[in-house]
Specification:
Elements (H helix, E strand, L loop, with lengths): L10 H5 L13 H22 L3 H23 L8 H11 L7 H12 L6 H13 L2 H16 L12 H86 L3 H26 L8 H8 L2 E5 L6 H21 L5 E8 L2 E8 L17 H11 L3 E6 L5 E8 L2
Parallel strand pairs: 1-2
Antiparallel strand pairs: 2-3, 3-5, 4-5
Helix pairs in contact: 3-4, 4-5, 5-6, 5-7, 6-7, 6-8, 7-8, 8-9, 10-11, 11-12
């Protein structure tokens, strides 16, 4: 019976050595020391990360001053610290920089040194950290502990003369040692909270300022759009009326056809203007109609699924290229090539040299189309270039990122 085992009982012992226990989980003093060392490293790293620039130097200077003063206090009163009290006091002084992460632990370690009656600084520094980082209840409990430990004469409690002057002085001293660090700690906590709220308020005001600026810009754009619409729509309606008169009085079918085409273009321009004012403008879906009206040839129209802003910008680029081709190269063939490549929407509008001499355009005819398109492309993270084509004519190229 002693040699019998249930089936599969050897499985766990054979596989368990393949998964060794974590170092932090190891029992005994070694595992506890390793966990304590890791906690100390995390505490020091987080304290240095929180303090940057001048704050880091100020923190280092403060901790150096606290440790130096505590060590000096222990060495100055070493005649009153027999046995192991002096090494214990020095160890607590060296550990004081950890009070920012472990304020309650450091306060508990500092209370025995306070019971000597000659070491005050470690307990005061630890109590300040408790009041600055913990709740009001914990701060009050720490202050009460410091007051009690500092009031009771632990080393000569049996021989202490409990006279009224001695009790009064003891109460004043213990109250000072307990109340002052706790009050300064709560003041530090209130200061940090106030600074955080002020920073949040400043951030909120900055967001409100940006929102107000954006709203003002939108209102100004709407006002300009209405002004442009009212002015341009009036002139386009006059052009349409004059075209209708030309159609009625035309002597040949050719002139009548041209007058009708001009009237149709003016009405379409007015419709596009109204559409642009009331929404953000045409996109890639309206490109076939634009090419048909301009008599341009589409080499490729591989637009795919593009962001609306990219589609509107691409439409304006093609529109500007075809307008320049008709203005500066009348009769020349215009070609449009749009395709997707390497995460970008690439456009190419080209035309050949003009078939006849082009008269000089009036100075008020425009001249701001390409600079405006370059600015629009830059806002979307794209590029736009324009210049003479190698074989004559003109070439307009643009690329817009799709991501």
């Amino acid at each position: 019976m002693s040699g019998a085992r249930p089936e599969g009982a050897e499985t766990v012992p054979r596989q368990s050595p393949a998964v060794p226990p974590a170092p932090e989980a190891a029992p005994g003093p070694g595992g506890a020391l390793r966990r304590a060392a890791a906690a100390v490293r995390r505490c020091a790293g987080s304290a240095l990360r929180r303090a940057e620039g001048p704050d880091r130097l100020r923190t280092l200077a403060t901790e150096t001053l606290v440790v130096t003063a505590s060590v000096a206090e222990a060495l100055a009163t070493r005649v009153y610290l027999p046995g192991a009290l002096l090494p214990a006091a020095l160890a607590v002084a060296v550990l004081l920089p950890l009070r920012r992460c472990f304020p309650r632990v450091l306060l508990l370690l500092a209370l025995p040194t306070l019971a000597t009656g000659v070491l005050w600084l470690p307990a005061m520094a630890a109590l300040h950290a408790v009041a600055a980082d913990r709740s009001r209840r914990e701060a009050a409990a720490g202050a009460a502990a410091v007051a009690v430990v500092s009031f009771v004469p632990w080393r000569g409690v049996g021989d202490y003369p409990w006279t009224l002057p001695d009790i009064t002085l003891g109460l004043l001293l213990s109250g000072l040692l307990a109340v002052a660090p706790a009050a300064l700690g709560r003041l530090s906590l209130a200061r940090r909270e106030l600074a955080a709220r002020l920073a949040e308020l400043a951030l909120s005001r900055e967001r409100e300022r940006r929102c107000a600026a954006e709203q003002a810009a939108l209102r100004e754009r709407e006002r300009l759009a209405r002004e442009v619409h009212d002015t341009a729509a009036h002139h386009l309606s006059l052009i349409s009326l004059h075209c209708a008169d030309l159609v009625a009085g035309a002597e040949s079918a050719e002139y009548r056809r041209r007058a009708e085409a001009l009237g149709a273009l003016s009405r379409r321009a007015a419709a596009d203007l109204r559409e642009t004012v009331h929404r953000e403008g045409p996109g890639l879906a309206e490109l076939p109609g634009l090419l048909e009206a301009a008599g341009a040839a589409a080499v490729r129209l591989d637009t795919g699924d593009c962001p609306p802003a990219v589609g509107r910008a691409a439409y304006r680029v093609v529109q500007e290229g075809l307008t320049n081709a008709r203005r500066h190269a009348p009769g020349a063939r215009a070609e449009v090539d749009i395709h997707r490549e390497a995460g970008e929407l690439r456009l190419r509008v080209s035309n050949g040299p003009p078939h006849r001499t082009v008269p000089a355009a009036p100075s008020a005819a425009g001249g701001q189309g390409l600079p405006g398109l370059r600015a629009r492309a830059a806002e979307l993270g794209g590029t736009l270039s324009a210049g003479p084509a190698p074989g004559g004519g003109f070439l307009l190229e643009a690329a817009f990122p799709l991501g």
